[in-house]
Automatic annotation (TrEMBL):
Keyword Signal: yes
Organism placement in taxonomy: Eukaryota, Metazoa, Ecdysozoa, Arthropoda, Hexapoda
Record SUPFAM superfamilies: Carbonic anhydrase
Keywords: Signal
Leader peptide range in chain numbering: 1-25
Name of the protein in its database record: Alpha-carbonic anhydrase domain-containing protein
InterPro entries on file: CA_dom (IPR001148), CA_dom_sf (IPR036398), Carbonic_anhydrase_a-class (IPR023561)
Coiled coil spans: none
Domain Alpha-carbonic anhydrase: 26-286
Amino acid sequence: MRRCRNTPLAIVIAPILICASVVLAQDFGYEGRYGPEHWGEDYARCSGKHQSPINLDKVNAVEKRFPKLDFYNFNVVPKAFQMSNNGHTVLVKMSFDEDTMPTVRGGPLAEKTPLGYQFEQFHFHWGENDTIGSEDLIDNRAYPAELHVVLRNLEYPDFVSALDKDHGIAVMAFFFQISNNSTGGYEGFTNLLSQIDRKGKTVNMTNPLPLGQYISKSLESYYSYTGSLTTPPCSEEVTWIDFTVPIDITEKQLSAFRLLTANDDHLKNNFRPIQPLNDRTLYKNYIDTPIHNMGSVPFVNAENAAGNCRWRPLSLAVLLPSFVLVALLRTSVFSGF
């Protein structure tokens, strides 16, 4: 039998190619050669026509009466809470039991799937001072920081398979405003930021709070549009829900974000400039009650849902080795969230 002499070389080259792909996937920044104006050179989708963020223009927004947004398990304490500095943002991942995963249904998401969207992760964008920092703007006004809660359409078994699919991903965006007191759990959260001061550092919160403690308490007023991820590869067909009632954060707490570093420089101004709306429609949720009279939306657990229908995530029984490799390569791209 003839021996294939190229096999050892292939074994050597394969890991090199994998490592090169990972490095390239993380090779973006917010200024200079790797800034947003150059993203389209390496990631073609970043030059698309339906990109995010945008300016949320009240005058041109179309009012629409969306179904009620329902939040399930946003008051469940996670089993684990991991914060990491990936050189682009503070990335938070939370783990839950299968039947207590936070999910969102209704609102603009009702048109996409009846199954709802499941929580994947949340992360932040901020500026070097209080006049800049948010990615989306409201009437050309920027906020000092913005929170993105990333969700996956439950029609897909995992995050990677949901990418580039029609409405496979949704992002709930929340603005921050400077206040004397902070919303929910940000005191304990920002106290841990000094432990991830440099790129690559990770810390686990020992006494984590539910996801609902990190978002706005008023969830009726929002804009919605179809956009993209705001970091490479800028995949489109993402459903955006931008809530107008800000999250309160103190100046000291926000300063803790600004002290983080990436590549021996301060991690600051990690926001993408606004993109043209082009042929898209921006919707504004129609509400009957004036904003100043609105109360908070109660969170519910899955077991309390109407009809006692308990959602359980889809499972992926078998992954072929080639699919695993593709997933690893594509997942590396999203370390830049």
